[in-house]
Amino acid sequence: MKSIISVGILSLGFLLSCSKSTDPVLVDTFDRKAFLENYADSYIIPGFQTLSTQTTLLNTTINDLSLNSDLSSAKQNWKVAYEAFLHVTLYNIGPAEEQVLTKSLVEEVATFPINTEALSTAITSGNYQVGSVARDLRGFLALEYLLFSEDAQGSDAWLAVVKAIAQDINERVADVNSAWPTFRETFVNNNGTSAGSSTSAIYNEFLKSFEALKNFKLGLPLGLRPGQTEALPGNVESPYSENNLLFSNTHFQVLKSFWEGNSGLGFREYLLTVEGGEALVNSTELQIKEVETAFLNVNETDFEASQLDGNQNLIALHTELQKLTRFFKSEMSSLLGIAITFSSGDGD
């Protein structure tokens, strides 16, 4: 009896051994260095170069202003510069990430909503110092208020603050732009998938930027965030220039382009190299089309204070973005084995 059992165990062991030898071995063949080179050379470096060019032009235009100047050129240059910023808004890594004394670039130059009451008080009191005021008193959206709201205009102090903010934005962007070509080598060579890798960093910043669009440019103003009982019209992104639809759509198209990778290796191509990736790509692309369709049903007037509460066009857009979350976030993270290293508080 013992001999039969022994033979059985040996046979089982032999079968298991044979089975193991023929099991498929999962080999990571994706060229993440080329993948990171595509993001550095096709997206990040040219994106910051364009932004720096536009903020320099904006700063020059504003620096030439007087109290009697027509603000048309300054307003147009602001709009173009902010659109350029949206193309790099998800690259808060390396030179643009939080440092010892500063927050990330997006926090330093694009915090909203602006505290217009505190900003006006600081201007009229003569106590405005751009380097020391709170982030909701400076940056692109503070400049929007000062350029587009007639209530804020018309004094020497106003003009001085406008010039100070434009210069501050330009200097911060120039610092990031000049540092990226040197940082590029570090970025592309850090091509693992651990929490400290470049792949993990850009993926997590992509998610943060997506959450910012969904939660703070739409969810919060609409009153859809957990615990909210009403809409908050004052929390829309650009209430004075009335470019909310343009900016939100641009932001989404930037995220879509990042995911696709365009002509080079991007996250879409990365997904196609892993088991289950093709199905996820197909599902993601279908939902992206749903979001784009929802954008087509939105008008700029939907963002007006009197139209925001219960606005079905914007609620539908937010819903479609929410549906996209699981594809960009949980499923993509799981298939690629990249950990989500931040807490969005989104409940998904």
UniProtKB/TrEMBL annotation:
- Tell me which InterPro entries the record gives: Imelysin-like, Imelysin-like_IPPA, Imelysin_sf
**Key word Signal present in the record?**
yes
Compartment annotation: Cell envelope
Q: Which Pfam families match?
A: Peptidase_M75 (PF09375)
Domain Imelysin-like spans what residues? Answer: 44-298
Q: Which Gene Ontology cellular-component terms appear in the entry? A: cell envelope
Alphabetized, the UniProt keywords read: Signal
Main localization (coarse): other
Gene3D superfamilies listed in its UniProt record: M75 peptidase, HXXE motif (1.20.1420.20)
The regions listed as transmembrane in this protein's record are: none
Q: Kindly provide the name given to this protein in its UniProt entry.
A: Imelysin-like domain-containing protein
Species assigned in the record = Arcticibacterium luteifluviistationis
